[in-house]
Design goal:
single chain, about 130 residues, mainly alpha, two-stranded antiparallel ribbon
Length: about 130
């Protein structure tokens, strides 16, 4: 087994990985379901008609899933939309990260689990 090399902050050193075996991937010879269905329906076009008739018959018997599927295929999936009118009581405050951390600490909220990662920048980074 390969030893995993890390620096004092726990970050992987160049050339070291947390997954020395690599990605698992698909088993050799496996094919996606979509590809298999395309191939099947290409070779058996009558089956497409059978699936369509079955879906329509299921919808006729008031099976909600079949009804939903038909409408999704005909009209597209429904998009949920919300219209917000009037003013919203939202106030956005932009401040340097150092000021935000100081305010957080001064309000007795404890020390936040972040650290400044650059001098003169507004960037913060979470600590593990």
């Amino acid at each position: 087994m390969t030893e995993i090399m890390r620096d004092e902050k726990g970050h992987f050193l160049p050339g070291s990985t947390g997954n020395p075996g690599g990605l698992g991937g698909r088993p050799i010879g496996s094919v996606s379901l979509v590809k298999r269905l395309r191939e099947h329906f290409y070779d058996n076009p009558n089956d497409i008609e059978m699936v369509n008739k079955t879906l329509i018959n299921m919808a006729k018997t008031r099976e909600l899933g079949a009804i939903r599927e038909l409408f999704d295929r005909i009209d597209g999936k429904a998009i949920e939309r919300h219209k917000i009118e009037g003013e919203l009581p939202i106030k956005l405050i932009f401040m340097p990260a150092s000021e935000l951390l100081e305010t957080h600490y001064n309000q007795n909220l404890g020390t936040p689990n972040v650290e400044l990662i650059g001098e003169g920048t507004d960037a913060v980074q979470g600590q593990e």
